[in-house]
Amino acid sequence: MDSFASNGSQVLDPDDPTVTGERKNTLDDPEDVERACLKQMNYKARRKLQQRVRIEFNITSVINRQKFLMRLAKALMTFGAPSHRIESQLLSAARILEVDAEFIHIPGVIICSFGDQETKTSEMHFVKCGGRLALGSLHEVHQIYRQVVHDEISARKATVKLEALIAAKPLYGSFTRCTLAFCLSALICVLAFGGSFVDMWIAGAGATFLCLMQICVATKSQLYANVFEISVTIVISFAARGLSSIRSQIFCYTAISSAGIVGILPGYLILSSSLELASKNIVCGSVKMVYALIYTLFLGFGLQIGSDLYLLFDQGARRDLAALAARMMSQATITGTFISDNGTFANINHGEPLEGTFTFVSGAPYTREHIIDGCYRPPTFPWYLQPFPWWTQFIIVPIFSIMSSLANLQPFWTVELVVMVVISCVSYAANKVANHFIFNRSDVVSAIGAFAVGLLGNIYSRKMGGTAFTSMVTGVLFLVPSGLSQAGGITAQGNGIDIGGAMIAVTIGITVGLFMSQALVYMFGSRKNAAIFSF
After folding, report:
1. CB of 433 within 8 A of CB of 452?
2. Cystine design at 186: which of 86, 138, 204, 293 (Cβ 3.0–4.6 Å)?
3. pLDDT of residue 54
4. 517 and 453 in contact (C-beta within 8 Å)?
């Protein structure tokens, strides 16, 4: 179905031979060519040898090319390639290798069908694997793919490189991943959710606990992996509610709970699903979108359960929260009977009792004093309990961008890392400026930030020959927690439906911004540069 959608919309990869005009001159290795030269020998002298070599050469050559296509499909899924481009990349490689092939991509599986025009037969292969986003490995896969479609290496050598890349160990170990999780949650607590110097350490500790459970328990126990997200969010929310209930009010529940689970937010999953829906890949896009929404509801459910579980043990905190909610209500609705006990309302209903539903509106609504980003911050608090000054963003944002790129398995000493950090900083700056002028519209604000990211990423790919996708991922993922903070935070007053709606609004804005930037950049230039979808 997805292949039909892709062919119908004529989505071509930028390296597709129908766009670049490349033709494969060396379909096979030099060793195979040497063996093929045996076909030029004396037929009468080596008739049997010639027949054997011809059959062996032709079969081996086709098998090598088909094997490369299947390894390429596995590598793209393993390292988190943008799923709406996988089919077009595989079709481009099949064309340049002169292999009669069709591909269908559904979540977690790629179906490869290879046809043989001589025997009028076909064979089908299922490539099934899971994976996560790995920017460094994905960049290497893209370079191998470009070398093949531009006729620089043969299919056999490319297959060996892909197999070595898939079998390689993760770039960073468990300790490094936990350290990165701590730094990311601590920094995003300050940047997006109004946390203080004290809050950021608690949020970082929660993220470290989450990462440890994910690495040490969830990956080894399939039974626990099914409830991993709910159990971890319950623990983090329970601890955050307990700390925020301390009488001194030095901890902020919203900042700690939101930043603590930012590492398992399905931001990239929802982003890829919205990109697929916008690319008319209905099957993959709708399946991933529904899964991401259910996953988000699990997170919201876990946060609410953790908070209510603590309030079940601390009745004083429950009463305080109920009294605060009642004071903050601008109106109250009461159903019953109204009876006048004096002559003030004698003219109403002829002095008879009134029955029904009555709404009382407060003439002087409760003022939210000293509330900053959902956290209580009176001016009497010391500096370590106040939000960070605005100028600290110039230091924190680049550090967060570096940490986010490393957490997505990007090698440190690379030029691409510098490009990622620059684009990510521009993304945050555009988001903040847009939010200053546009209030309570997280989708529009995210669209403006994504437009800036897409503009820089596509210009970098077109003018400097870089990979647009890997250079833009960090900046795009930065917009998800930033946009959610403008939508009221991840906790969203404890309603999981609101969290899902907030994430959809943010990712739809990101999708629109990315596509608008691509249309603007690739509107001009030759046909080679007019191919769409670099993200």
Report:
1. no
2. 204
3. 43
4. yes
- Which pLDDT score, from 0 to 100, does residue 291 have? 86
Contacts by 362-366 with C-beta closer than 8 Å and gap 24+? Answer: 362/329, 362/330, 362/331, 362/332, 365/330, 366/327, 366/328, 366/329, 366/330
- pTM of the complete model: 0.76
pLDDT tens-digit map of 206-220? 999 999 988 888 888
Instruction: Tell me the C-alpha distance between 484 and 479, whole Å.
Output: 8
What does DSSP say about strands 375-376 and 371-372: parallel, antiparallel, or unpaired? Answer: antiparallel
Hey, how many other C-beta atoms are within 10 angstroms of the C-beta on 219?
A: 12
How do beta strands 371-372 and 109-116 pair? Answer: unpaired
Tokens describing residue 388: 């960070």
Contact 471, 461 (CB under 8 A): yes
What is the C-alpha to C-alpha distance for residues 32 and 58, in angstroms, rounded to an integer?
9
Q: Which residues, in sequence order, are CB contacts of 496 under 8 Å at separation 6+?
A: 296, 297, 298, 299, 300, 301, 303, 304
Tell me how far apart the alpha carbons of residues 456 and 461 are, in angstroms, rounded to a whole number. 9
In the prediction, which pLDDT does 331 show? 67
Spans in the chain with pLDDT lower than 50: 1-10, 52-59, 486-488, 492-494, 527-533
Nearest-10 crossing angle of helices 135-149, 155-167: 170
Q: Please provide the size of the chain in residues.
A: 535
